[in-house]
Amino acid sequence: MTTTLITGANKGLGFETARQLVAAGHTVYIGSRDAERGRHAAELLGARTVVIDVTDDASVAAAVKTIEAHGGLDVLVNNAGVEARGEGNTVVGAADLTADMMRSLFETNVFGVVRVTHAFLPLLRRSAAPVVVNVSSGLASLTRLSAEGTPAYAYPGVAYPASKTTVNMITVQYAKAFPEMRINAVEPGFTATDLNGNTGTQTVEEGAEIIVRMAQVGPDGPTGGYVDASGPLPW
After folding, report:
1. Among this protein's residues, is 174 annotated catalytic?
2. Which of 52, 55, 165, 218 could join 31 via S-S bond, C-beta 3.0 to 4.6 A?
């Protein structure tokens, strides 16, 4: 039985990823900051739940102990993420971005990925087929954001793309450091979730597909990649 933890999984892409992986036979932990929301989500899916705030060392350490006590971990999906938004739920652009905003967003999107991955490394390294999936974004691509005339080029935000580009670099370096693991970054696509005020153009079912696919790669599968449902993306 494959045991999987998904952070930020009580709603949106995380919840749908959990649903699909439960259906695929995984024992799934719904990682949630809120115990009640996590418990409700787990009950709906036939999953387990664990309280985990990716910005808090003690919370992450407690989650490790909980999962270790029930047998270990094979797959980690670093899904929890936030966006920098201002008045009217608009994306904060370069003119209004402050260092504090950037720091707050990186605490979840970047430091959270490192904090959780580092904490669970001992459990993952005990697995026969350890996998890490880092949920990135098409906005992480420097190639795409510098190509005039594309939707990505028109995106005004700074903090969110910068955080996901950093996640891509983390993915590359961790994959090299741990060749026995399969560690990849995925772009779910512009999915309708709370993160973007449900303005996305595809469903959570469509967005979760690549996360689910990469969560199930075998020991001979790809690692160190940045992919969407169609294949590799330009860095």
Report:
1. no
2. 52
